[in-house]
Amino acid sequence: MEERTTASTPQEAGVVAAAVYHGGRKISDIDINEAGDWARREGHVVWIGLYEPSKALLERVGRQFSLHHLAIEDAFKAHQFPKLEAYENGIFIVARTAQMVDGHIAFGETHLFVGVGYVVSVRHGASESYAHVRERCEARAERLSEGEDFIVYAILDFIVDNYFPVLDALNGEVEDIEDHVITTTMGRAEIEQLYAMRRDLLHLRNAATPLSDVCRRLERSDVVAIDPGMRPHFRDVRDHLRRVQESIDTMRETLAFAFEASLMNSQMQQTDISRRLAAWAAILAVPTAVAGIYGMNFEHMPELSWKYGYYVVLGATATICAYLYYRLRRAGWL
To answer: Do 181 and 265 meet the contact criterion of CB atoms below 8 Å apart?
Structure first.
């Protein structure tokens, strides 16, 4: 995903934005090499946004804020499980992002380094730009004045809110499958689509569920000091995540029902075909039996010399076949 760099060093790849704030108001864009000095000033907060940065850039940022080398390694490699880890001078948060790309969910990651006087966000893969989050925060200086806590909340809330458009898109597809399975039997392509959707929903659930635990820990402040006034905000994010999980579970159950209904519909069709074949076999058994009897070529068969024997046998055979057809049709086998 290409982004326009808005930091004071636009030529530096990987830096999306780097700015310092005081009292909720932006002072200026800054250079990465000045970030640590600004963060150590009383009442100042440095907010840096990175997108798929190089390891060298991450290490430079790490030196500015004394970030733990294990957290830097995780942020560079990505492919991390959502989590919150506490270090001596800050915390490290991993969250999974999601977007709809070509009818499928594309996942990305956001890593947050949070400490006194700084927030560093590192994005990988598919995700919306956090420029919108920054603009909204800068427009609400009284909230941004709450510092790092509010920035972390704003980013996590943005990530969770972006799950809902994905769920809405998937819900429309689920409803189409549900309507389709009632009228027709699902083919191979439809079944493959169903399994792909269930797999995507499972991955989305695996992304949302651990993030709920992260917000719970932030809300209860068992690993980091969160301002008491900010704790209800993380509770609100948890409520949104609960809605996400409920929607995912509902759609997974619907898809499971759709598959079972399709399987039952297919079995009913096979049973109906078997009944029809059995019914026609029963009808055809009558002329087959008559033809077999008269094909044995015995010399002494009285009816062979009877003038009306041929017509009586044909008539009796046709009558029996017609009667069988009538009874089997009334029974629903034909």
So the answer is: yes
Residue 147 token pair: 């510092």
pLDDT tens digits, one per residue of 24-51 = 899 999 999 999 999 999 989 999 999 9
Structure token digits, residue 62? 């790490």
- For the chain, which domains are there? 1-141 (3.30.460.20), 269-330 (1.20.58)
SS3 211: helix
* β partners of residue 115: 118
Q: Which residue has the higher pLDDT, 90 or 186?
A: 90
Read off the pLDDT of residues 215-266 as tens digits, 9 standing for 90 and up. Answer: 888 887 665 667 777 888 888 999 999 999 999 999 888 888 777 777 777 6
Backbone dihedral region for residue 192 (phi beyond 0: left; psi -120 to 50: alpha; all else: beta): alpha
CB 149 within 8 A of CB 227: yes
Structure tokens at 69: 């080398």
Beta-bridge partners for 20: 28, 46
Which residues, 6 or more positions from 205, have their beta carbon under 8 angstroms from its beta carbon?
245, 248, 249, 252
By CB neighbour count within 10 A (0-12 exposed, 13-18 middle, 19+ buried), where does 229 fall? exposed
Strands (E), the chain: 15-22, 25-29, 44-51, 83-87, 90-101, 104-115, 118-125
HSE-CB at 142 with a 13 A cutoff on CA atoms is 0
The span from the CA of 127 to the CA of 117, in Å, is: 26
CA–CA separation, 218 and 215 (whole Å):
5
Specify the pTM: 0.75
Tell me the C-alpha distance between 91 and 171, whole Å: 36
